[in-house]
Amino acid sequence: MRVVLAEDSMLLREGLVRLLEEAGANVVDAVGDGEALVRAVVEHKPDVAIVDVRMPPSFTDEGLRAAIEARKQVPHTAVLVLSQYVEESYASDLLADGNGGVGYLLKDRVSDLDQLSDALERVVSGGTVLDPEVVAQLFAQRRRDPLEKLSPRERDVLKLMAEGRTNSAIARTLVVTEGAVEKHISSILTKLDLFPSEDEHRRVMAVLAWLQHG
């Protein structure tokens, strides 16, 4: 797995490089700002770009914006965003294109080598990975739930989908069959008016609808 890393702190950047190498990744470039990230992605065309949200010069959302721009220039590049804090708008912006292959993790999670490896594999394969704390806080920040058509069990399934779980993982968590999970997901997509389309990934669009309105 070829990785481009963007982190403005040199010490943290070097530490992440070592951690990623332990996880079996090949870090082809490690940079310190958003513009350098875009250049590195265009040059190396990595499997995944790992990006700190807050980077120079304003330390607001330069990293996220650079990741979105890099993804536009090199489509299908997976993106794993790291953040010190849960920031709702950043998670929503990351998911906005509906194409999958994205993740949002809190920095204190990346020290867990198994969790980091799993997150990378999932985003590179086109999945969506959200830190459970990110999901929980996004839900807590919402004032109302317009997804009234969903049953309690369908909400459980969609919540686990938002955490990036596979159908088999959802089935194990809810102690049901994979067939039951597939039926719930089909019902969720129908109730959310997400019909088959060549332009949109319906599962990701359902997760995005949940994060925006759930």
Account of the 3D structure:
This protein is α/β, with parallel strands linked by helices and 214 residues long. The chain has two domains: 2-130, Response regulator (Rossmann fold); 142-213, Arc Repressor Mutant, subunit A (Orthogonal Bundle). The chain is 52% helix and 14% strand. The protein is built from ten helices and six strands. A six-stranded parallel beta sheet has the order 2-1-3-4-5-6, with helices on both faces. α3 (62-73) links the parallel β3 (48-52) and β4. α7 (152-162) crosses α9, α7 (152-162) crosses α10 and α8 (167-174) packs across α9 (178-191). It is globular.
Keywords:
single chain, 214 residues, alpha/beta, Rossmann fold, Arc Repressor Mutant, subunit A, 2 domains, six-stranded parallel beta sheet, 52% helix, globular
How big a fraction of the residues is strand?
Answer: 5-15%
- Provide the CATH topology of the largest domain: Rossmann fold
End-to-end gap: 34 Å
User: What structural class do you assign from the helix and strand content?
Assistant: alpha/beta
Q: Count the strands?
A: 6
Architecture (CATH level 2) name of the largest domain: 3-Layer(aba) Sandwich
Give the oligomer, counting copies of the same chain as homo and different chains as hetero: single chain
* Number of individual domains: 2
Q: Strand order of the main beta sheet, please?
A: 2-1-3-4-5-6
Average per-residue pLDDT, rounded, comes to 85
- Tell me the helix content: 40-55%
Q: What's the gyration radius in Å?
A: 17 Å
Q: What is the molecular shape?
A: globular
Figure out the total of helices. Answer: 10
Low-confidence stretches: none
Helix and strand sequence: EHEHEHEHEHEHHHHH
The major beta sheet can be summarized as:
6 strands, parallel
Overall CATH class of the largest domain = Alpha Beta
